[in-house]
Design brief:
This protein is mostly helical. The protein has 5 domains: 12-158, no CATH class; 180-260 and 313-375; 420-522, no CATH class; 526-612, no CATH class; 634-715, no CATH class. The chain contains 22 helices and 6 strands. Helix 6 runs antiparallel to helix 7 (147-270) and helix 16 packs across helix 17 (555-565). 11% of the residues are buried.
Length: 715
């Protein structure tokens, strides 16, 4: 150890590692940033020369031991008497030997370097490591025996620090994405608040209208009650009037009878023939007449007693009809009054709950206003995006903030992708896709977006022709084999990385996003094929309707084609497709539409709004179908489902499933070939799969409703 002394030359590997692992926070304008490798090497050499000038090789003492002889243990047995004596003598010697000068000089140098650093910058923690690196390099150069081990240790730590810095750089976009997601959520909350405030105002108006209606009903009720009171008074007056008329009539009849009797007596007295009658006969006639008079008088009294208070039938019927109408009105008013009372109570409860929600929303609004961030000014992007204002206006048309962020990220990513000359290989791990397994740098071929889209179209064309010839292989293997046939084995890996980075970046492009999902195993090829078949079938139906081959159809014909092609779509979804085809609700159904323009793609593979809406509805209907299946199963995600139970649930939600389609769905869910599926009821209860896994597998496949939920009896 005494022969070791500082050297003035650093090894190339240590120098390279020091210059490569300079802190990420230091810029080129910073005085501490190394201008050149030779500059860094010269600076380190000068520092080491200064240190080596201050002390000699004799300063490398084996501190904190006392002497060189004490640091080396003699080859003696641990249990021997001599060993115990030496150990006792070592323990009795003092331990106050001073530090070596070499160690003190290194500590002083480290302390000075740390004081010279500007700790106010963000990269202060990174800069603090540089003096330690230099001192460690001194040790590596001075201790030749341990130089390989110390160098490997230092390189391992440097590699780990580089990986950590790379991870930090990759996480920075996620932070920006979180900020944008927070802004989007805030916008949705504000929109919901505005919608709820509008609903509250409408409910208040409705409440005021109902209160006015209640007041009007109460006024009508009071008016009817006063009218009933007047009618009762008039009825009493009429009753008294009829009683008076009855008594007067009785008196008048009695007077008339008396006058008639007197006239008859006078006529009998004056008639000469009366005196000539037989007195006995006259007496008998008088007696019979008096008996008739008595009987008539009794009948008259009975009639008076029985019908003295009876009114005329016509008046009775008229009063009865009036009373019935009033009773019906009273019952109707009473029912209306009870209903209004119930509605009033409900409105009061709704009002109280609305007040509570209003207070809660107001508090949340205050909190959001306190913590919310301002809306981004998207016009600032016009100066950054290639093409200026005109291109940014075209890109931003009809997009929300979340979509604008995706567009901006694609534009920025495209520029960074153009500047990158090489891609870093991902290695040969099992988690890496086969077409990306490579170690080292891969050349960036830098194709245009249009060239990538055309290449993807060629891949799909050859893949579909391969499927027709029944020579189908795994899609990822087919992809790499195609690149080898097209560009040769030498450039196949470079093109694979180039296409992968492009389709991973341009997620808003329909062709690239669909190709990426199929290539990474997120969707089956059948999903892409099904969407192509849907568009082809629609175009064929529209062409058949266009008998004159003029290239135009009416909106009514478009609606008929959509309803016949998609019999299970709801009317609002049909209307959404028509609106995506430039149909306005207030326009006429006879308006002409150039239907071929609905299926045209631009040069970069972007589909029209109509095709995008078709794909969106296809995915939504698949999610609804799987949600119905989950509800029918009635199981949680962590539970298992048998093949028998899954078959039964599929038949319940979609009774029109034929056997072939049902077996294909079961094969996708259970990950079992169709030929190995047991027949219904044949040892199928032992085959189980996790519910979450089954639904995920079905979501990746082409699954859709074949018929209505409940079949008609006629069918």
């Amino acid at each position: 150890m005494a022969s070791l002394k500082p050297k003035t030359r650093l090894s190339n590997s240590v120098t390279m590692s020091r210059t490569q692992m300079w802190p990420s926070g230091v810029t080129r304008d910073d005085p501490s940033f190394p201008r050149h490798k030779s500059f860094q090497k010269r600076k380190t050499s000068q520092k080491r020369e200064g240190l080596s000038y201050q002390f000699s090789a004799g300063d490398l003492s084996p501190w904190p031991t006392h002497t060189s002889g004490q640091t080396i243990l003699c080859n003696r047995k641990p249990c021997s008497e001599d060993y115990r004596k030496r150990a006792g003598s070592w323990q009795q010697q003092p331990l106050n030997t001073a530090k070596p000068r070499y160690l003190e000089q290194l500590e002083n140098y480290l302390r000075k370097e740390l004081l010279l650093l500007d700790l106010g910058k963000d990269s202060a923690q990174e800069l603090r490591l540089q003096p330690y690196r230099e001192i460690f390099e001194f040790f590596i150069e001075d201790f030749k025996t341990y130089k390989p081990l110390l160098s490997s240790i230092k390189n391992a730590y440097e590699v780990m620090l580089a990986q950590q810095r790379e991870k930090i750089r990759t996480l920075e976009p996620l932070k920006a994405k979180l900020v944008t997601m927070n802004e989007d959520c805030n916008e949705r909350i504000l929109a919901m608040r505005a919608e709820e405030r509008y609903e509250i105002s409408m409910l208040k108006r409705e409440k005021m209208n109902l209160l006015k209606l209640v007041d009007r009903k109460n006024e009508e009720k009071m008016a009817l009650q006063s009218e009933v009171t007047k009618l009762r008074k008039s009825l009493a007056q009429e009753y008294l009037h009829y009683l008076t008329e009855r008594d007067a009539r009785k008196i008048l009849i009695a007077d008339l009878n008396e006058l008639r009797y007197q006239r008859e007596d006078m006529s009998l007295a004056q008639s000469p023939s009366v005196w000539g009658e037989d007195p006995t006969k006259l007496t008998l006639a008088l007696k019979m007449t008096r008996q008739d008079l008595t009987r008539t008088q009794m009948e008259l009294n009975t009639m008076k007693a029985n019908f003295g208070d009876v009114v005329p039938r016509r008046d009775f019927e008229m009063q009865e009809k009036t009373n019935k109408d009033l009773q019906e009105q009273l019952d109707s008013l009473r029912a209306d009054y009870e209903e209004v009372c119930k509605e009033h109570e409900m409105l009061l409860q709704l009002h109280m709950s609305t007040l509570k929600e209003r207070d809660q929303f107001y508090a949340e609004l205050q909190e959001i206003q306190r913590t919310s961030t301002p809306r981004p000014d998207w016009t600032k992007c016009e100066e950054v995006v290639t093409g200026g204002t005109e291109r940014w206006t075209m890109l931003a048309e009809g997009k929300n903030s979340d979509q604008l962020v995706d567009v901006l990220l694609e534009e920025i990513g495209e520029g960074l992708l153009r500047e990158k000359d090489f891609f870093s290989g991902l290695g040969y791990e099992e988690s890496i896709p086969p077409f990306l397994r490579f170690e080292g740098n891969v050349t960036n071929m830098k194709p245009t977006r249009k060239a990538v889209v055309n290449l993807i179209k060629e891949i799909w064309k050859e893949r579909l022709s391969e499927e027709q010839t029944l020579q189908k292989q795994k899609f990822s293997d087919f992809f790499y084999n195609f690149l080898e046939r097209r560009f040769g084995p030498g450039d196949a890996m470079a093109w694979a990385y180039t296409i992968f980075e492009n389709i991973k970046l341009f997620r808003t492009n329909d062709i690239m996003s669909q190709f990426y999902e199929v290539l990474m195993g997120k969707n089956r090829e059948s999903v892409y094929i099904r969407q192509k078949e849907i568009t082809a079938q629609l175009l064929k139906e529209m062409t058949n309707i266009d008998s004159q081959n003029e290239g135009v159809i009416t909106m009514e014909q478009l609606s008929t084609v959509l309803k016949s092609t998609f019999p299970f779509k709801k009317d609002e979804k049909i209307q959404q497709l028509m609106e995506a085809g430039d149909w306005q609700p207030d326009s006429s159904n006879t308006e002409l539409l150039k239907y071929r323009s609905l299926f045209v793609e631009d040069e970069e593979g972007q589909s029209t709004l109509f095709v995008q809406k078709l794909r969106e509805q296809y995915l939504d209907e698949k999610d609804e179908y799987l949600q119905e299946l989950k509800q029918e199963l009635g199981l949680e995600f962590r539970e298992d489902v048998t093949l028998f139970r899954l078959r039964e649930a599929l038949m319940n939600i979609d009774p029109s499933l034929d056997k072939q389609t049902l077996n294909s769905y079961l094969s996708e869910a259970m990950q079992i070939p169709v030929t190995e599926l047991p027949e219904e009821g044949e040892k199928e209860k032992g085959i189980v799969v996790n519910v979450k896994t089954a639904l995920e597998q079905l979501h990746m496949a082409d699954i859709r409703r074949v018929g209505p939920r409940e079949q008609d009896p006629a069918s």
